[in-house]
Amino acid sequence: MKKLTAYLLLLLATSAYAAALPDYSTRYDPARDVFSDGRAAIQLAASTNRKVLIEVGGDWCAWCHVLDQFLHNNQDVQQQLHDTFVMLKVNVSETNDNAEFLRAFPKPLGYPHMYITDNNGKILWSQDTAEFLQQGKYSRQRMLDFIARWKQHE
Fold first, then answer.
1. Domain boundaries in the chain?
2. What is the CA radius of gyration of the chain?
3. Are strands 85-91 and 51-57 parallel, antiparallel or unpaired?
4. Averaged pLDDT, groups of 10, the chain, 154 residues long
5. What is the CATH number of domain 23-151?
6. CA 53 to centroid of chain Cα atoms
7. What is the pTM of this model?
8. Rounded distance, CA 65 to CA 56, Å?
9. Which has the closest alpha carbon to 124: 100, 146, 141, 94?
């Protein structure tokens, strides 16, 4: 019974937490205006003293889904990620490659790919998410180390 109660509380907290995130933080959407979303993310980052983590990918991307599932299954990692960064998911697909927006960034090696900016929009880092893999799966420790490294840059 205690396990069920704890699970239900976690589920409710997770649902409330996800509902509080801006849409641009939760999903890839080819119809979104990435420039407007980027400005909003920078404003939120500035007002909350965080950096912006731009995750580039799309619904077509199998590894993007694997990363989403990893974060869903590791709520504490996801919470730390959102505590450290304002997340901005940028769609790249045949429908909308957001090439004009992404022109300012280094070319990604694959997807999903992450970029970190300060809360003024200055590019600080380009991160290949394959570096978070260990034995073919996203590593909890590698992700936590990455987050901790950027927490030190506050």
1. 23-151
2. 16
3. parallel
4. 46 47 96 98 96 98 98 97 97 97 96 97 97 97 97 76
5. 3.40.30.10
6. 6
7. 0.86
8. 12
9. 146
